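Budget justification aside, the reviewers requested a transparent look at the raw inputs and outputs of the sequence design task funded under Objective 1. We therefore reproduce one unedited record. The lines immediately below are the structure tokens for a 481-residue chain.
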């Protein structure tokens, strides 16, 4: 059984505070030293065991005098909590980084090496909001990978008291996302975010969301502050989030997560000014469907895992680590399962496209995928097989262009015997007439994949050859005299 605190132990914080008040009367805290503290402590009737000068605090230690009395230690910093040049510089640096994260509508990331975070921040800092999000999604697609997400779900989210009940839903959403049901997967995770906040601290359930967020984050920051100073006594001004924002990396992470929750995810609809549209109210009230994009699924998985860390520091349970664990069998199997889903989805999409191709059409777009990547791959392959090879067999040197952004059209240039011809290739017969007219200005023929499908309805006024690429016989390249 632990020993009960004596009356002397209970009085020590007041004694320590008295010594600190005396220190603040010095002309400058740098004048404080071990001899002075030892003398003051004895004057206050304390039985001094040890007094040493040392650097204290995690991440960015500060100079202090450590006084030990009756097995209890107090730290008396010898630099100011408000105007120390090193602290001011660190604070400004962290505010700059936080501003970049705010532009990207995100927060300081856990589990990601600085070597990966640095290029992301550089890419985002001097761009517009829209360009910043594009850069963020590009960089995080190589950071929050399929395997990274599997670890977050199987080894972090599953360990959280708050999130464990939602683990089957998160796991299924992950598999469904890579099986092609992307919008549905994102929609399944948004309510889990709100549930996580409410379940972390039941006693805060009747408070406004912003107050719930503050209560939870404040408590997590409080534990970080105590641990930062080895759970020893330290003046209150050195344990505030204002001070530790630039000193303790954990507090900085928690604070930027707080701001993301307030300014983005739980922001009132009329005040939301972001670009990602990952907002609980926009989703719940059907104000916008722009939340349905690939990047938001990665964001939600990482945000939920971060909630698990917040819970661990709120409850002091340490159930979800701040360091990314090595993949275990659970996450490896989940990762492999997602890969199988993705491979099966690719085969299914090709079959779907072939079915639509029979009718000269393209597969209708989905909220998170307009099908352009699949069309681009298919259009390029078919162009090589059914257009480039026959032209080369006919004696032409062929230059193949790139598909357009929507992968609806592309063009090839054939040269031979001092002659140059252009041929257009469309993904389907049922293509807008304006695209036919555009190609007709430079092409001797406009071809398309698949069979004819009411071709005349799309080609009125077109005076060049139009037809299926599979049925076109290219002319022979002329020979030089």
């Amino acid at each position: 059984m632990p020993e009960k605190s004596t009356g002397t132990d209970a009085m020590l914080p007041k004694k320590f505070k008295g010594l600190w008040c005396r220190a603040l009367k010095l002309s400058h805290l740098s004048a404080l030293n071990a001899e002075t503290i030892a003398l003051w402590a004895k004057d206050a009737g304390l039985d001094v065991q040890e007094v040493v000068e040392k650097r204290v605090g995690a991440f960015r230690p500060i100079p202090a005098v450590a006084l030990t009395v009756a097995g209890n230690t107090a730290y008396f910093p010898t630099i100011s909590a408000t105007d120390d040049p090193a602290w001011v510089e660190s604070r400004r640096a962290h505010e700059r980084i936080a501003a970049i994260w705010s532009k990207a509508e995100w927060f300081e990331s856990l589990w990601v090496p600085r070597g990966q975070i640095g290029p992301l921040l550089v890419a985002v800092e001097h761009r517009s909001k829209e360009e910043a999000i594009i850069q963020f999604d590009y960089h995080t697609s190589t950071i929050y990978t399929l395997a990274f997400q599997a670890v977050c779900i199987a080894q972090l989210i599953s360990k959280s008291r708050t999130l464990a009940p939602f683990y089957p839903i998160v796991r299924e959403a992950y598999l469904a996302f890579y099986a092609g049901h992307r919008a549905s997967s994102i929609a399944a995770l948004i309510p889990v975010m709100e549930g996580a906040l409410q379940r972390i601290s039941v006693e805060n359930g009747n408070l406004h969301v912003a107050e719930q967020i503050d209560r939870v984050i404040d408590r997590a920051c409080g534990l970080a502050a105590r641990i930062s100073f080895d759970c020893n006594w330290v003046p209150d001004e050195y344990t505030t989030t204002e001070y530790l924002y630039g000193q303790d990396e954990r507090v900085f992470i928690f604070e930027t997560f707080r701001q993301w929750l307030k300014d983005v995810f739980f922001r009132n609809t009329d005040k939301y000014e972001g670009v990602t549209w990952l907002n609980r109210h926009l989703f719940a009230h059907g104000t916008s469907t722009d939340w349905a994009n690939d990047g938001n699924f990665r964001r939600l998985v990482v945000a939920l895992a971060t909630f698990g860390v917040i819970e661990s520091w709120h409850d002091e349970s340490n159930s979800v680590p701040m360091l990314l664990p090595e993949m275990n069998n659970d996450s490896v199997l989940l990762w492999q399962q997602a890969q199988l889903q993705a491979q099966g989805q690719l085969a299914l999409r090709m079959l779907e496209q072939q079915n639509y191709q029979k009718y000269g059409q393209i597969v209708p777009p989905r909220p998170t995928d307009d099908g352009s990547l699949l069309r681009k791959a298919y259009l390029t392959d078919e162009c090589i097989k059914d257009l480039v090879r026959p032209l080369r067999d006919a004696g032409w040197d062929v230059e193949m262009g790139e598909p357009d952004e929507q992968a609806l059209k592309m063009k090839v240039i054939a040269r031979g015997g001092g002659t140059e011809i252009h041929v257009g290739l469309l993904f389907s017969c049922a293509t807008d007439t304006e695209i036919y007219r555009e190609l007709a200005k430079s092409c001797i023929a406009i071809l398309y994949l698949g069979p004819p499908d009411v071709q005349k309805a799309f080609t009125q006024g077109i005076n060049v050859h139009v037809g299926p690429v599979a049925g076109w016989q290219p002319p022979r390249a002329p020979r030089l005299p």
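The CA atoms of residues 417 and 480 lie 5 Å apart. The radius of gyration is 32 Å. Computational costs for records of this kind are itemized in the attached budget.
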